[in-house]
Amino acid sequence: MSPLHRDLNPACCNFWWAPPDEFQHRFAGKPWRWVQLPKRTWLADSGYKAPHRDSCASLAGKIIDEGIHNPVCVAALDDDREVSRGFIVPGDWYESALAATV
Fold it and tell me: Largest Cα–Cα distance in the chain?
């Protein structure tokens, strides 16, 4: 197996997946600020610009209001350091993924 490209985040295999309600439940008590990452930065290390940061509830609300049909990559920042990254996925994501493998 080839090593990861030098521009890839070495933690990319550890990103989490959660529907909006699970995201809120899992992270609501954390003091972190959240950013939605553009697709070109999904696998990048943390060298991206994040001028707008939301609370967990605010970000989840925006994503739900926009209508979530595809995964949305988000990162949590504590001060300016990334502490978590994952994907908010549609509510039926797990079932759809399982059905697609059958």
Answer: 43
